[in-house]
Model the fold of this input.
Amino acid sequence: MSRPGRSTLAALLAGAALALVVAAPARATLGSVPAEVADYVASGRMLERVEQFYGPGAAGDGIDFDDTTKTGAISRVWGWSPEVLAGDGARGEAALADATRLLNEWVVPITVADESVGVARIWINPDDHLPELADFLASPALAERIAALPAEVALVHDADRGAWFAVDATSATPLLIGSSGVASPEPLDSLELAPVAQPEAPADSGLPLAVVAVVVLVLVLAGAVALPALLARRRAAAAIDAPADPASADPDSPDPESADVSDPR
Done:
C-alpha cells in the first residue's frame, strides 16, 4: 500500500475512533457507568424503547421523539443510607459516603430539538445482567437540572418521597422536592426528611355491621313467625301416626269378642 493510502486509512481510523468517543455519553456525576450501560445508550437501543413506550402511540399522545432527539451524559444514581432515613444525619469527612448508597440505577437526560423533555432511567436486570429501560420521567425541569450537575456531586433518588437531590460532601440540594419537605439546600449533618406518606385507610362507615344486624333481625323475625306453624304441623303429624288407645274407645260400643254369638234359632 502506498504512503498516501496508508495516510488516508489512518485518517479514516482516527476519525472513526473520534466519532465513537463523541457518540459515547460521558459520565456526568459521581459513580461508575458500566460499559454495557454506556453501549445501551450510545447504540440507540435505549431511545428505541423510550419511543416505543413513551412516544405518540396509537392514541396520538406522548412525546414525538424525532430525528432531533439526543441523549445527554449518563449519571449513576444513589439512594439515602439507612442512617439518613432514620434521621441520624451524616457528619465528618466521610459524610457523603455515610449519607448515600449505590443503587442499580442510571439516568440519562433527553432533549428534542435541543429542548429538555425528560429523563430515562436504566437498570441492569439481575436475571440476565443486561441493561433495560426502567421508565421515563417526563420532567423537563429535572432533566435540565441533572444535565447541569457538576461531576463531584452524587445524584440521589428518594423513590419513596418522589424526590431527587444533588449531594456533595456537606449538603443536599433538592432537584425535585416531591414529599421530602426539603425545599432548599440543607447540611447533611442536620438533614431531616419528611415521613413517608402512608395511604389513608378508608373510613369505617359502619355499613357492614349494620347490614349484619339487619340480616340477623330478619332471620329472628322469620323464625318467630314460622316456628308456631311448624310445631302445629308436627303435632298434627304425630297425632295421625300414633296408635289408637283402647281406653279411650266408646264404652257403649259392643265388644266384638263379648257379642252374643248364639244361634237365633
Residues 1-24 have pLDDT under 50 and may be disordered. The radius of gyration is 43 Å.
